[in-house]
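pinned: reference chain
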Amino acid sequence: MRLTLLTISGLFTLLTLGTTFSQPPDDWKTQEAANLKNIQQLTTDFARAGESYFSPDMKHIIFQAEEKEKNPFYQMFVMDLGTKKYWKVSPGIGRTTCGYFHPTNGTIIFASGHTTKTFEKEAKEELERRAEDKRTGKHRRYQWDFDPNIKIYSSNIDGTNQKLLTDAPDYNAEGSYSPDGKQIVFCSKRDGHLNLYIMDADGSNVRQLTKTKDCYNGGPFFSPDGKRVIFRADRQKKDALQLYVINADGTGERQLTDNDGVNWCPYWHPNGKHIIYAGADHSNPAVRPNYDLHLMNVDTKATKRVTYAPGADVLPVFSPDGKKLMWTSTRDGRMPGSQIFLADFDTELP
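pinned: its structure tokens
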């Protein structure tokens, strides 16, 4: 997922284990109330869940989750927000990540490694490692290995009519549609490096958007007008992600953040002028970073903090009308695993 597709040191231990962070403000709930109203937890039945996205009509969400005591790897699910009923749309084996709704025709895309022939062996080894960690009290850092078996697929909202969209070798994932549904921007290692590409919605006419070497470019999303792409990259220092924006034709790239922190999972506000993202200060190695959500004006780079909780707040997305915010969190820092939260978004944009 855009959540699991990083190797940021320690972040996924925090998300998975609910580890506490550096002390937030004593009045963190009051400070959050100035930005978010009616916060509710959407997922409860999973060992962990996250990276959720709204359907265009805001009636459903697509998300990834790990089923308790079953497959140790994420699978893809769709939830009806009215009834809170959900169903699995991925094949059920292999690593699965990065689901997204088509903006007009009711279909979805997601990335899956279900064709791997070593799934049973990998799942068994992972479960054995977890059992040993539980026995010894060891907390391992979570690391996504950019599984070369992961490809992008499209399907109906119930998981039927699955079609392979990427047949290039190695890792292909992190896909999202353009506003008109005609194109998909995604991350691929087909050239030996993790770069961004754009292809037609049927998988044809692939063109390369970023052309860097020995670094990661990922988590891309088209702007609401389809003219720009927001993404993250660790070009300055491995795993130390910064945010970038680039025109959809590959011109006009600009770096938006440049600090001692990790900045990732940017997502556009429907107005096309602002983004929301997760960030944490990593400048002091003696202090555990606290991941919170921040708003940014893409043109002026003015920022505003949104969350203040002691747990990790990451992977934020706006509803199509901009009135709701959904994100992945451990909230108070004591949750056994990350879950999905939803709130009314009520704040002034910077």
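why pinned: The mean pLDDT is 89. The first strand starts at residue 36 and ends at 41.
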